[in-house]
Specification:
The protein is α+β, with helices and mostly antiparallel strands and 247 residues long. The protein is built from nine helices and ten strands. The protein has a single domain (38-214, 235-244), classed as Jelly Rolls (Sandwich), CATH 2.60.120.330. A six-stranded antiparallel sheet has the order 1-8-5-10-3-2. It has a four-stranded antiparallel sheet with strand order 4-9-6-7. A hairpin with a 2-residue loop joins β6 (168-171) and β7 (174-177). α1 (8-32) runs antiparallel to α8 (215-231). The longest helix has 25 residues, at 8-32. The two termini are 18 Å apart.
């Protein structure tokens, strides 16, 4: 497909959006406490709306198990986002991601047809940015890395976790071992890595949402998102849809 050249207006919006993104990130970093910011969070105090995932656990799991037999057709993380290449593409085992919701795309995301009730559940969460099933094949570990932004927090819910040698995540200097029917909330911007010696697949639902903050930070973030959306066109959207869909 021949891509159309971006207009000057689109390029200007893109430059503004990237600049605002850096400003937003620095502002949220300071608001969160800088190097003294927490690692793990209490869900009820931080964002109790996340509990809709735990309440809808059986519904989500049913839709997940329906797509899991086709996991080899689900794209690997770096095939969707090249920025993840260094942590996703290493080794023979795969880290696959199935997106069920993505901010700015709405119900046009093709994967919603596979998990419509899951999408409806997660989209009840205020400030939702994205939600996806993170699928680690047996013995697929993830090397140490820092999350890209400070303006979001990440919620993990265990749906398929091996009983023998269950995978574990280190976030800064703290550790968490996934369990089915259990969720954990943490700051993804801290250095973190996954240790996985299990012989079976591990699947968690990852839900990212805007970090709680004052109104002016939320307004600045919305302006950043608006600018980025003005810089993309239908070709960009179609490329994304092709990348995230089951092949």
């Amino acid at each position: 497909m021949q891509r159309r050249k971006r207009s000057l207006t689109q390029r200007a919006w893109g430059k503004l959006g990237r600049g605002l993104g850096k400003l937003v990130d620095r502002a949220y970093y300071r608001h969160a406490g800088g190097e003294g910011r927490p690692v793990f969070f209490d869900v009820e105090r931080t964002h109790p709306a996340l509990r809709v995932i735990d309440e809808g656990y059986d519904t989500i799991r049913e839709e997940l198990l329906a797509i899991l037999p086709r996991k080899d057709s689900i794209p690997r993380y770096h095939e969707i986002d090249r920025a993840q290449y260094s942590i996703s593409a290493q080794g023979n085992a795969a880290w696959r991601t199935f997106f069920v919701s993505l901010s700015g795309v709405g119900d046009r995301l093709p994967n919603r047809q596979q998990c419509p009730r899951t999408a409806q559940i997660v989209e009840r969460i205020p400030g939702l940015l994205q939600a996806f099933f993170s699928i680690l094949e047996p013995k697929k570990s993830v090397p140490a890395h820092d999350g890209p932004h400070h303006y979001y927090l990440r919620y993990h819910t265990g749906f398929v976790v091996p009983r023998e040698k269950p995978p574990q995540i280190r976030v800064k200097d703290q550790f968490y071992t996934w369990k089915e029917r259990e969720s954990v909330l943490f700051d993804d911007s801290w250095n973190h890595e996954v240790f996985n010696e299990a012989e079976e697949v591990r699947v968690v639902l990852i839900t990212d949402f805007l970090r709680p903050g004052p109104w002016y930070l939320r307004a600045l973030f919305r302006l950043h998102v608006f600018s980025i959306l003005q810089s993309v066109d239908e070709d960009d959207t179609q490329d994304l849809f092709e990348k995230v869909a089951i092949k």
